[in-house]
């Protein structure tokens, strides 16, 4: 650090030099991201609540009430108004909290019956955050094979249930292909076998309910299924909230209680979140954008994203590319008959397109977030055809 400070102008000018190197969502070139431009109202509110700290909620009672309202609005959207949870940093932290709750529940109720390391089962398509959770929490991670529709294979799941199984994860909107696991079947099996079922709807949570409302035939995945104990849903993906805004929702309060740590000198005497000091700005901004958009606003957003998805998929097929499968949500994965995915990705990148390559199976993966417009797809198709 320098001895004397810079002027405000110098600080801002220098920052602009750094910022110039960043890609911008508005360029339409960011094709492999699940984040997008936050809604202007959410940005404004975020700045207004920058100093609020929900790590000491008694000092910020208004912001705490906003967090509670966000949780109950999301619960209502996902089949159960009276849910319990927190607005946190994103899907990774939400998944970590869910696995921690499942582990603590089992340790509290049947610790002695466990015969070895507690195990969690996730489909092979699950987000890598479960690897982090397993590592942090000392759990064994069993990855379950997918069926030919890229969903968790139920037979393989049942064969892998053991005395040490403490939780299973179903994904509603997989990271690579946007697929929805057979959650209603998982829910039945988990109820019968008394296994904790967590649904990772980090991506699909702000899409599936709205698409269903406007007539899309998509499967049930939320608290309307009795066996679902917790859900991850990320406002900083299709919810248009600023980063970091993620949410964890639990069916029962006890799942938060089993994670409580005593915090005797704070305004709240126990804390179940992983972070101590944590921003209230995410809660306020998520509350604002949800109130502003309403269900109609999100339904329009989801419907437009699906239209662009369809537009890209049709154009790719017309141009002779192969789709991995027909898109269920706003993600298209495809391959060229002429070159492997990583080679095509490199060529696209050389022309300024930021695409990602999925691993299972290898394919170019495009996420049609709200910053991708029809004109960007037309330009993208031109580049593809030139390559
Ligand atoms: N669960 C699912 C189903 C996800 O897709 C993701 C992230 C997470 C959990 C973890 O969420 P956080 O990243 O909020 O902790 N999915 C994207 C991914 O890893 C996130 C992302 C977003 C990646 C923007 C790149 C990017 O540019 O691919």
Quick recap:
The chain is α/β, with parallel strands linked by helices. The protein has helices at 8-19, 40-48, 61-77, 91-110, 129-137, 154-160, 183-193, 208-213, 254-257, 281-318, 341-350, 374-386; strands spanning 84-88, 119-123, 140-144, 165-171, 196-200, 228-233, 246-250, 261-262, 270-271, 322-323, 331-335, 356-359, 362-367.
- The CATH architecture of the largest domain is 3-Layer(aba) Sandwich
CATH class term of the largest domain = Alpha Beta
Indicate the low-confidence ranges by residue numbers.
Answer: none
Rounded to an integer in angstroms, the radius of gyration calculated over CA atoms is: 22 Å
Q: CATH homologous superfamily of the largest domain?
A: Type I PLP-dependent aspartate aminotransferase-like (Major domain)
Number of helices: 12
Bound molecules: ligand 0PR
Let me know the average pLDDT.
97
Provide structural commentary.
The N and C termini lie far apart (47 Å). This protein has two domains: 8-37 and 299-386, Aspartate Aminotransferase, domain 1 (Alpha-Beta Complex), CATH 3.90.1150; 42-290, Aspartate Aminotransferase, domain 2. The longest helix is centred in the C-terminal third of the chain and has 38 residues, at 281-318. It is globular. It contains twelve helices and 13 strands. A seven-stranded mixed sheet has the order 1-7-6-5-4-2-3, with helices on both faces. It is α/β, with parallel strands linked by helices. It binds ligand 0PR. The site of ligand 0PR has 16 residues, from helix 4.
């Amino acid at each position: 650090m320098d001895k004397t400070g810079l002027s405000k102008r110098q600080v801002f000018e220098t920052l602009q030099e750094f910022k110039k190197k960043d890609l911008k969502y508005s360029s339409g070139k960011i094709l492999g991201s699940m984040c997008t431009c936050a809604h202007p109202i959410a940005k404004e509110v975020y700045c207004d609540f920058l100093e609020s700290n929900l790590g000491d909620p008694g000092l910020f009672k208004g912001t705490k009430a906003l967090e509670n309202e966000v949780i109950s609005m999301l619960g209502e959207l996902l089949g159960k108004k009276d849910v319990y949870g927190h607005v946190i940093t994103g899907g990774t932290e939400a998944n970590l909290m869910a696995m921690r709750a499942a582990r603590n529940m089992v340790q509290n109720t049947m610790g002695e019956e466990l015969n070895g390391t507690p195990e969690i089962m996730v489909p092979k398509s699950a987000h890598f955050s479960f690897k982090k959770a397993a590592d942090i929490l000392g759990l064994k991670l069993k990855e379950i094979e997918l069926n030919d529709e890229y969903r968790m294979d139920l037979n393989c799941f049942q064969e892998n249930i053991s005395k040490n199984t403490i939780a299973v994860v179903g994904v509603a909107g997989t990271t690579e292909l946007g697929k929805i696991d057979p959650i209603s079947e998982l829910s039945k099996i988990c109820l019968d076998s008394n296994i904790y079922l967590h649904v990772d709807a980090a991506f699909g949570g702000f899409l599936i309910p709205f698409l269903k409302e406007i007539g899309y035939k998509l499967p049930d995945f939320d608290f309307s299924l009795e066996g679902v104990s917790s859900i991850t849903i990320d406002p900083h993906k299709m919810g248009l909230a600023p980063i970091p805004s993620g949410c964890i929702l639990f069916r029962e309060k006890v799942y938060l209680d089993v994670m409580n740590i005593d915090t005797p000198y704070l305004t709240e005497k126990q804390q179940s979140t992983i972070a101590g000091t944590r921003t209230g700005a995410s809660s306020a901004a998520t509350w604002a954008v949800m109130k502003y958009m309403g269900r109609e606003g999100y339904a329009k957003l989801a419907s437009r994203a699906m239209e662009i998805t369809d537009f890209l998929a049709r154009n790719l097929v017309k141009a002779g590319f192969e789709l991995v499968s027909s898109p269920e949500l706003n993600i298209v994965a495809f391959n060229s008959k002429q070159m492997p995915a990583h080679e095509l990705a490199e060529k696209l990148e050389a022309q300024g397109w930021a695409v990602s390559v999925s691993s299972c199976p290898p394919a170019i993966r495009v996420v049609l977030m709200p910053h991708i417009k029809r004109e960007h797809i037309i330009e993208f198709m031109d580049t593809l055809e030139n390559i």
